[in-house]
Amino acid sequence: MPDPTQAPKGQRNKLLSMCLQTVGIVLLAWILSALILAPFSFSTGSLLSNGQANDFTVNDFYNLVANGRAVRSLDNDVVIVNIDQCGRPEIAALLDILSMQDPKAVGLDVIFPDEREGDEILIDAIARTPNLVMVKKLQQMGGVNPPAFSTEIESYPGLTAYNDEVTFGAANFPQSVSKSTVRRFATSLPLADGDSIMSFASALAFKAFPEAYLDLSNRGNETEYISFPSREFRVLEPEDLAADPSVADGRIVLLGAMTQYSDFHPTPIDAAMPGVLIHAYSLATILQHDYFTEPSTFVIGLIAALLSALLIFFSMCIPGGVKGLVLRLLQLALLLVIIRVGYWLFITHHILLDISYTVLMVTFSFFASDIWTGCATIGEWGKKLWHRRKSPTKSVILNEN
């Protein structure tokens, strides 16, 4: 009569074996994923990137989808005045108009590197403009870790000699290489002399809404993700501001060029966005407290490992026959769910969950399982061959008549 205690014991041993195999296959999938990530810095979204940018990410895809929704909001805090066709006298006239209004702050996204004849008008206009923020261009110092910057281009000093309220902000965007996708703005940038300078957006927030800047500063991050989707800004021509100066009342006014090709940068929602518009998005992110959070690498890796483990363990419980079809459909469904959950977290909770590694792990799960099974089979063959060689040779005894 069979012992009833043997069945539960056998089931426990089988379950333990399945769990150990699952752990081993997950580790193998992790190694395969790491081998791809290391030399190529792979991300699932890079499959969709073009050869020029080559840094498209999954979060860029979420930005594109979110920005394409029929949901738009006109920012009520920031106004842009396009000064493409304006020379220094025209810019001075615009500053005079703004000085007679009540803007929260004025951001002048223009560099005046040299002195010219007739600049007295511009100098007087700058002197009369309250809460004015001007830009500096910084150059990264080579061989400094962490990166530090030195001043490369700034407006000549005599331009602001009569206005002590003028603040300078760095116009630089955090980019891995020149003309790479702009996804973040800097809170401040460290200078080579040990000092630091606020970014253009941070300086404007500090001037206009100190409490918003304080919240940004309290977050303690050197850079923040820019909130791009579903946001629009008023872009006025100089004559529009002259016709209705009240549009500047209580708002931050940015003066900058909208069609200057040298100042175009790729962003997640636009392949060529003017720098002044990126500053506007950065500023709106600060003023609306529209910040994103990003889980740590450990959390992202843990999510990827758990989902991969569940998929592998479930595959061991499915009998043969339709097992292959069921698993492939399950894998596809899981990938779609991962993408959908990542988008939901992006839109609803402003969480930037980089699903690239999770997608990679789930994709490699069955491949790793096949490798594991193949290696186990080869091991069994080797074990049997070893036992055959170690066992004594059987001799055939012949009976002689």
Description of the structure:
Strand 7 (188-190) and strand 8 form a beta hairpin. It is elongated, with a radius of gyration of 31 Å. It is of the alpha/beta class and 401 residues long. The protein has 11 helices and 13 strands. The protein has helices at residues 6-40, 58-67, 88-99, 120-128, 200-208, 210-219, 238-243, 275-287, 297-317, 323-349, 356-390, and strands at 73-82, 105-108, 132-140, 149-154, 167-170, 184-186, 188-190, 196-198, 223-225, 231-236, 252-256, 264-267, 270-274.
SSE diagram, text form:
Blueprint: H1 6-40, H2 58-67, E1 73-82, H3 88-99, E2 105-108, H4 120-128, E3 132-140, E4 149-154, E5 167-170, E6 184-186, E7 188-190, E8 196-198, H5 200-208, H6 210-219, E9 223-225, E10 231-236, H7 238-243, E11 252-256, E12 264-267, E13 270-274, H8 275-287, H9 297-317, H10 323-349, H11 356-390
Parallel strand pairs: 1-10, 1-11, 2-3, 2-11, 3-5
Antiparallel strand pairs: 3-4, 6-9, 7-8, 12-13
Task: Provide a short characterization of the protein structure.
The protein has 401 residues and is α/β, with parallel strands linked by helices. The chain has eleven helices and 13 strands. The strands form four sheets. Strands 1, 2, 3, 4, 5, 10 and 11 form a seven-stranded mixed beta sheet that branches. It has a two-stranded antiparallel ribbon with strand order 6-9. Strands 7-8 form a two-stranded antiparallel ribbon.
